[in-house]
Amino acid sequence: MTQWWTRLVADVADWFPGGLYGLLLAVVLVAIIVGLAIQEPALYRWRRRSKKSKPVDSEVSSDITDSDSGEAVPDLPADALTARAQAFMAAGDYRGAVREWLRVMVRDLIEADAITHRPGWTVTELASAGARAIPDSATLLHEAAGIFSEVWYGSREAELVTATRMRGLRDQLGGILGAYSPTRVAEVDR
């Protein structure tokens, strides 16, 4: 039974330019092309994301500049960061909104004296520091850090539901922070 296969490959290789090596190269190239055709949406996700996100209005862009596109928390009050997050959501930039909602949460923790922000902290370190200072916030801070990491460092595309969930986590954190006094937070932080 294997003789027919051997003869077929030998006959095709004799006919094919480059012989057996040329045939192998052609098979590999066809497999790569087929693989790219099948995986195209996953490999080129950044193209789909850039087509879906709406450009930020010039009115909004005066309030939101992407010059601080790093992970650093701008030196703005929580209310200003909240306005930025809402503007990103209104503009359809859900990825930017996820980042801003996380920044609002970090700013809330800083303003409540729950954490002392140190530039260069990872999202996980920030969530852990906040969870140590206010144990009731641990679950939601780690969820927010996970969502942010999936959107910014993973391949998850941000959608309205993602940004809305981050806003909900921020609202929950605000409720938890309202129950803590700065003195109680300082005692827990030690």
Automatic annotation (TrEMBL):
InterPro entries (alphabetical): TgpA-like_C
Domain Protein-glutamine gamma-glutamyltransferase-like C-terminal: 103-167
TM segment ranges: 20-44
UniProt superkingdom: Bacteria
Pfam family, one: DUF4129
Assigned keywords, A-Z: Membrane, Transmembrane, Transmembrane helix
Name assigned to this protein: Uncharacterized protein DUF4129
Protein's organism: Stackebrandtia endophytica
